[in-house]
Each structure stands twice: as structure tokens, then as C-alpha cells.
Prior knowledge:
Elements: H1 7-17, E1 26-27, E2 32-33, E3 40-41, H2 50-59, E4 64-71, H3 72-77, H4 82-86, E5 95-100, H5 104-117, E6 122-126
Parallel strand pairs: 3-4, 4-5, 5-6
Antiparallel strand pairs: 1-2
GO molecular function, one term: tRNA dihydrouridine synthase activity
Protein name: Trna-dihydrouridine synthase a
Pfam families: Dus
Amino acid sequence: xxxxxxxxxxxxxxxxxxxxxxxxxxxxxxxxxxxxxxxxxxxxxxxxxxxxxxxxxxxxxxxxxxxxxxxxxxxxxxxxxxxxxxxxxxxxxxxxxxxxxxxxxxxxxxxxxxxxxxxxxxxxxxxxxxxx
Length: 132
Ligand SMILES: Cc1cc2nc3c(=O)[nH]c(=O)nc-3n(C[C@H](O)[C@H](O)[C@H](O)COP(=O)(O)O)c2cc1C
């Protein structure tokens, strides 16, 4: 799809400010990140826990899996219990952890905990999901 007048410049500027590791995933024709996978099992609170994901991986290798949304403050207040919230099996890859939050600093700290915990292919941010 061709970009409209002016859009190409905007997309080039967007590409410029992206961290280097994300640049291959940027689609300049539309200004969006390319989806990493064609098919995903969507994140679902109270459903996509590690047991559900393990079962889904048994059904197909060809999908990205997501954790349930984990609220950022949960991780920040329960740093000693990260296995409860972030624990997963190797077979679940590719696996994205979904973080929920609205404070950029707090979400950033929670994302750093996920990165340090390790094993996730993606950190997905949910900034507007109402869980209740
Ligand atoms: C029970 C349930 C829980 C959900 N929890 C989340 C969630 O934690 N995070 C999220 O981004 N979307 C959540 N969703 C939305 C789904 O991920 C998905 O986007 C939605 O069901 C639409 O999917 P569809 O476009 O394939 O119909 C939830 C949906 C359901 C039904």
C-alpha cells in the first residue's frame, strides 16, 4: 500500500525514533509495527494462565501465546513472588507477557522486571483495558 503525501516523512521520523531492535519490524508503508505472528491466542484474564497456554501449545506450534494481563503494580508490590505471575514453560514460546497500567514510569518498572525475569519474546502493553 502506498503512503499518502506527507505520510512518508512522518513514517521516516517514526522509524528514526524507534529503538534499533524494533526497526526491522516497522512497516514504513503504513507506519505500524508488523505483527510478529499471523495467528495469536489473545490475552484473556482468568483464562490464559500457564496451564491454559500449555494446553494451547499442545494444540499448535503455529501461534503466539499471551499471558493474562498483569497489572504493573502487582509485580511491583510482589517482587518476591514473580514466579506466580511470570512463571512459564519453555514450550510456550513464542510468548508475550501483557502488562496493564497507565503510569508510564510504573509500567516501565514492571517491564524491566519482566525483562530481568526473562523468557518473553515480547512485552505487550495494555493501557486501556477495564478488567471490571
Ligand atoms: C474473558 C476475556 C478476558 C480478556 N482479557 C483480556 C486481557 O487481559 N487483555 C487484553 O488485551 N484483552 C483481553 N480480552 C480481549 C481479547 O484478548 C480479544 O481481544 C477479544 O476477545 C476480541 O477477540 P477477537 O477480535 O478475536 O474476537 C479478553 C477477552 C475475554 C473474552
